[in-house]
Amino acid sequence: xxxxxxxxxxxxxxxxxxxxxxxxxxxxxxxxxxxxxxxxxxxxxxxxxxxxxxxxxxxxxxxxxxxxxxxxxxxxxxxxxxxxxxxxxxxxxxxxxxxxxxxxxxxxxxxxxxxxxxxxxxxxxxxxxxxxxxxxxxxxxxxxxxxxxxxxxxxxxxxxxxxxxxxxxxxxxxxxxxxxxxxxxxxxxxxxxxxxxxxxxxxxxxxxxxxxxxxxxxxxxxxxxxxxxxxxxxxxxxxxxxxxxxxxxxxxxxxxxxxxxxxxxxxxxxxxxxxxxxxxxxxxxxxxxxxxxxxxxxxxxxxxxxxxxxxxxxxxxxxxxxxxxxxxxxxxxxxxxxxxxxxxxxxxxxxxxxxxxxxxxxxxxxxxxxxxxx
Length: 374
Prior knowledge:
This protein is an all-alpha fold. The protein is built from 14 helices and no strands.
């Protein structure tokens, strides 16, 4: 039965949602199904790529200057989170209309190919368009407020970030179809978000914070490359010329490896270059996961189901590295500032935004029912 109310969804497959709804509680069940479907569409397990650099930039501002406006901190993290969710839905919407990711039963790898909510008929196109438009408007509203009360330089970061999110797949630009999307990920998920958060707090620029943010950008580049591997044939058929489509699987493995090496090189060089203290070496703890993900990718690049653990490991590497860099900054700030309140506040914000993602990142089951292994 088609649901006429806005933001509710037409659920055609209970298998996708793994939920059974008794007729006697149909309304409450429909609400739960609707929330579940939208949560799938949000793809929240990718959203830490946005709020982790925002938290890192804000914490870095406190370490360097002693400034932490908690209201601005919260609004910044909320804004980039909503923008990333809108980005995920925008990609789903325009990829679907460009006939990308419609290859039928292609869910061997749950980390690629969009949410499947449009291709599966679970959400109406107009409802998704309305939802991501609403999220963009809220993000823009937050940005304009911060511009008015802090500095209009924020509009430079905000407009660039929102524009890149929307036009990644939206016509007429669709730069993600032209082999530029991966470099956009590198720039936006380090400099644009992280330095933007720093500017919100300090109204200034810092090369040290820029350096600390770089590993997350390189890891995000690696993440998008490995996620494009299972999609390369669908993408090529639809004219989406990603780096993997243009240069092939072997080159993709090289891109991934170089990006990860650069990320760890930046961490290693930070203390000798006086860009950070030695606590930043906590970020090196994720190196074994990166090596394992690279080896899986080299061995199973042509087998989407066997590649899935490498996709998941890459998400974990990025997330854990970001969390460890935040912890390193908080320890350094605690040593220098001798105050606990900013540390507690940052930890609360990190926990509140990350825990919903952690559920799917660390307790996700593969399509055959096996739990993914770390």
